[in-house]
Amino acid sequence: MNISFESPRQAEIVTLITLLDEYQVPLYPAESHHGIDMEALCQPNVLFAVARDRAGKALACGALVLNSEYGELKRMFTLPEQRGLGLARGVLTLLEEEGRRRGCSRFMLETGYLQPEAIAFYERCGYRKRGPFGDYSNDPNSIFMQK
User: Fold this and answer.
1) Does residue 8 have a pLDDT over 90?
2) Residue 41: φ, ψ to 5°
3) Which DSSP symbol is given to 50?
4) Cα–Cα distance for residue pair 4/8, rounded to 1 Å
5) Does the pTM exceed 0.85?
6) pLDDT by residue (tens digit) across 49-99?
7) Residue 27 belongs to domain with CATH number
């Protein structure tokens, strides 16, 4: 497995993000969707990590949006058949390490309450539930977490 920072503007990455959207969109009403688009993912303050297998196939991805107060995790996704292999943890670790190197000491995220596997993963990685942050407001469909 190789995990590195890459541009999200690649067909394989677009496919991963599309699969993430196809999974999440039916779960929640439109006002509860907080994914960011490709233009936002390509901004200079965004770190985008990709996990690839030995053959170079993209298996997982994630982003960290850095701002002056915290870094926000976005677009974390692992192909379903690749889950449980440590890919998400590897992507998360790389994002957090680089975020810290750039001066970020607080990491936040928003996920949906209908994603218990994601919530459990983040809790295992040291994230704890908290209230809304940034531009988010209370949403019964959202779980907010911080590390």
Assistant:
1) yes
2) -65, -20
3) E
4) 12
5) yes
6) 999 999 999 999 999 999 999 999 999 999 999 999 999 999 999 999 999
7) 3.40.630.30
Within a domain: 145: no
Both structure tokens of 64: 């960290």
Non-local CB neighbours of 54 within 8 Å, separated by 6+ positions: 1, 2
Does residue 113 sit within a domain? no
The reply to whether 57 falls in a domain is: yes
List the structure tokens of 107.
């990491």
Long-range contacts of 28-37 (CB under 8 A, 24+ apart): 28/112, 28/114, 28/141, 29/141, 31/139, 32/112, 32/139, 32/141, 32/142, 34/110, 34/136, 34/142, 35/74, 35/75, 36/63, 36/65, 36/74, 36/75
Range of the domain at 15: 2-105
Instruction: Of 80, 63, 64, give the one whose Cα is nearest residue 117.
Output: 80
Detail the DSSP E strand segments found in the chain.
Answer: 2-5, 46-52, 58-66, 71-78, 107-112, 128-130, 142-146
The CA–CA distances, whole Å, from 80 to 5, 92, 117, 129 equal 21, 17, 12, 25
